[in-house]
Amino acid sequence: MALFNFTDQLHTLTFESFARPVTVTPTVSQPGQPAYSSRGYFGTKELDIITEAGGVLSDSQSYLDIIMAEFPVLPRQGDTIDIPDHQSVPGGSFMVLDLAGVGEGSGLITVQLRKVVTNKPASPP
Amino acid sequence: MNKIDTKSFADPIGPVFANSFAWLMRNVLLERLKLMPPFSTDVVKFSRTNARPQQGEDIPYLGVYLIPDEELNGYGKNNIGASQFEDHVNVGFSYIIQNNDPEICEDLLDRAHWAIMSLLHDPDWNKWPSTMGSMRPRNPDNVMIQGITKVSRRNVFGNIGKTNETPVGEMQMEWMITIGALDFEPIINDLFQSVSFKAIYPWPEDPNRQSILAEWTIDTTSVESLLFRLWADRNGQPAGTAITFMTDVMSKTGPMPAGTIHILIDGVEVASGAAASGLPAFANGLAYTTSSLAAGIHMITANFVASDGIYENKDADEWTQTVI
Question: Could A52 and B164 be called an inter-chain contact, meaning their C-beta atoms sit closer than 8 Å?
Answer without folding.
Answer: no
